[in-house]
Amino acid sequence: MTIAIGCDHAGVELKKEIISLLHDLRIxxxxxxxxxxxxxxxxxxxxxxxxxxxxGKMEKGxxxxxxxIGMSIVANKFPxxxxxxxxxxxxxxxxxxxxxxxxxxxxxxxVGRDLxxxxxxxxxxxxxxxxRHCKRLEKITLIEDxxxxxxx
Length: 152
Ligand code: RB5
What we know:
binds D-ribose, 16% strand, Ribose 5-phosphate Isomerase B, Chain: A, alpha/beta
């Protein structure tokens, strides 16, 4: 699995920790920026990672901003993206088991470094449960298709 990772200025420090964790876990990741403390706009970096996942170029992504809210809003605009904001372990696990989330979003100003690393570990190692959840994901795809074709 290769993970696309990106953040705004509020997520840079946490992103470094997560990249090092993924390296230890032998999971390849591609860093889409931003790289420094200079203020940037989260949609620009959310778009890069979400586009890579939506197009199928990357299987999964991780996005970090201050609260995780802005990145979640951006990511879930992209067809096929199921982004989940998980600042604790239970939702990290459930977002994989039930929702087959393909982008994990973290709030860099909300969650501490050690908890964030546990969240990432849980998220990357938990499989999708399938079964009854498949038809629900299919319904999400149908909504996307319908909106694309006919609008509201
Ligand atoms: C940046 O100050 C902040 O607004 C951003 O990181 C994020 O929290 C937006 O949702």
